[in-house]
Amino acid sequence: MSEQKQTPVKARRRLGGWMPSSEDAAKTFRLDLARKAQQRANRLQGAPRASVVKDLSDLLLGDAVLRMNLTRAIGEAREAGYELGYTSIEELMAIVDYLMTYAPPFDPSAPVATPLNAVLEWPMCMPSGYAVFRDPAFNEQMRRVLDYWCGFLSGPHSRTHLNTHAPHGWFCEAARRKIGMDQFVCDPARPYWGFASWNGFFTREFREGVRPVAGYGDHRIIVSACEASPFDVRENVQLHDCFWLKNQPYSLREILTESQQDLAHRFVGGSVYQGYLSAFNYHRWHAPVAGRIVAAYNVDGTYYSNLEAEGVDPGGLNHSQGYTTAVAARAVIVIDCDEPAIGEVACVFVGMAEVSSCRIVALPGQHMEKGEQIGYFQYGGSTYCLIFRPGVIEQFEPKPPYHDEAPPIKVNAHLATARR
After folding, report:
1. Which residues lie below 8 Å from residue 273, measured CB to CB, with a gap of 6+?
2. Among 13-17, 55-59, 78-82, 163-167, where is mean pLDDT lowest?
3. Gyration radius of the chain's alpha carbons
4. Which domain holds residue 64?
5. What is the CATH classification number for the domain harbouring 303?
6. Does any domain span residue 274?
7. What is the CA angle 283-318-270, rounded to 5?
């Protein structure tokens, strides 16, 4: 630990603007959050915590291995020089409980759209933390915690910052410019601009005609399924590979799951395109091709697990993008394209951290036109990939090298061209 003590990371490559790149800004947020959580705990002294947080606490304190590993991970992060805002599991649980009724404010300089990720980000990439954040019982309980918070964000009490009050209101002038609010369906004359909840605002829809479908009627033109920046393109994807390695090969058996092996075999040798979403962009998914839905299912997985091979410095969870396609909570939708030469296209929408509620609206048997909505991320989104069969793609429009500041490819825009 001595080396980490001497050189704690001062900045991280946090993709998509979900958290600030400056560690000082993230630290300030954590310490402020911890202070508010403690104030709330003092004010409500004796009041029970949210049931899901109590169950998480009982799990962590009742399982000797989990308790030891998380306690050590907290200690390792603090010894490495990171200020967390908590020193124990008990103090961490007070912060988690506070977040169950937290609505993210707008912040133009240091956004923290995933507050629990900000709280956990250093323990989860410490040596003792990797096992905790992969533990099935821990992830099952985290799913319940996040579902509980998602319930709050889907209700009227989550609209605290849906106003025009600068600097934290999502409809103040700076926020409107940042997110291009005039592109979306809303009504400034109505309370909260017509949104019933925070999630209603975050899954806002574009106005008619704002995102025209590229190559409509031309099956060779494949469009972007999300408003997302390019992360990677890989060819000759394998059925099974060492997906935990630093170069993060894509492993079809893990991505599509063990129960879908026939499906996975049909994509062996094919192509994968992956993009990542921004906190400020559109969070619904559209069909990249016209065709019939032949499979649509959700996969439970991890929520804060990242890849050891990426290390502390490259950005942990955000730069474990390829790895998350195989382990994180996700939705898989497979479309059998109307163009036989393209065949099936697998669309994988991955939820990381708090953005893990993947809602499918296109069900097997339905026919979708290119550009039609097929689902959405409840409270934001994180990353997605499209998987094509061998020999299908002539070329992808995004070209390497891909970089963190790449602008998003608009949903329904030309993403790839299929061979004739």
Report:
1. 230, 232, 233, 385, 386, 388, 396, 398, 415, 416
2. 13-17
3. 21
4. 2-143
5. 2.70.70
6. yes
7. 75
